[in-house]
Specification:
253 residues, alpha+beta, 12% strand
Length: 253
């Protein structure tokens, strides 16, 4: 006789996974990402313009971002890892301003002195990589040296002595350079050449600066460049290439 007992099938409803599920992990990850983004924004807002520009350049071109951005993310940005470099840059900027002012004062004092007023157009003062450069240029008048010699003319000697008295007010290292045009001395180059002449003229200027009151201890170098650093490279024989350069170095150099 067949069993007539009905078959009962129980279907259990699946409930939520409760605290063992993974949905909360997604929400938490979103929260952490949002917090990280907030902190990055706050950090960027507190940085200087260089860092902001570097971050912007990275997000504009994350594959080939600029060197400034790369330096920042590599940890090479001075504003991030070496505040001392930033302070050094500020200090050098202040010194550059001070030397620029000194150059203006030199021209003013010479213009006020009737003995040198006519020579001021042969003096060029500018800021270069090493510091303040004072150049005494002949301009074809042969005002500074006798032709082909290192003998300073009397008025030129007095002018350089005057510069020595002014430069003695500061403690910066002084460099003196001699330059010639490209007219060579006769010979095979093993005798007296423009190198010797430019060096001798630089030393003549050094001695005049010392007579004016500049201590010998302040001289860092005496250089004779001959015609290797022409002021007018388009005309190697130009008189403007015959000059003496007096460089007041930055104290950090």
């Amino acid at each position: 006789m067949a069993d007539k007992t009905p078959v009962i099938i129980i279907r259990k409803k699946k409930k939520g996974e409760g605290h063992h599920g993974g949905a909360w992990k997604v929400a938490y990850a979103d929260f952490v990402t949002a917090m990280m983004a907030l902190f990055i924004v706050l950090w960027i807002m507190g940085q200087d313009a260089d860092v902001k520009e570097a971050v912007a350049s990275y997000f504009q071109d994350p594959i080939g971002f600029s060197n400034r951005a790369k330096n920042m993310f590599d940890g090479k940005s001075s504003s991030m890892i070496n505040p001392g470099l930033e302070e050094e840059a500020k200090r050098k900027a202040l010194e550059k301003e001070r030397l620029t002012q000194m150059g203006e004062e030199i021209i003013y004092e010479l213009e006020e002195d009737k003995n040198f007023k006519e020579l001021t157009d042969q003096i060029k003062i500018d800021i270069v990589e090493e510091g303040l450069r004072i150049e005494l240029i002949d301009f074809g008048k042969d005002m500074f040296f006798e032709i082909g010699t290192a003998d300073l003319k009397p008025k030129a000697g007095l002018l350089i002595e005057k510069l020595g008295s002014i430069l003695a007010r500061i403690n910066n290292t002084i460099i003196v350079e001699g330059h010639t045009d490209s007219r060579p001395y006769m010979g095979d180059g093993t005798g007296y050449t423009n190198f010797e002449l430019s060096s001798d003229r630089a030393n003549s200027a050094r001695r005049a600066l010392i007579i004016g009151g500049l201590p010998d201890s302040q001289f860092g170098e005496i250089r004779g460049h001959a015609d290797r650093l022409l002021r007018d490279a388009t005309d190697p024989f130009s008189e403007v290439n015959r000059r003496i350069s007096i460089i007041v170095r930055y104290t950090s150099n």
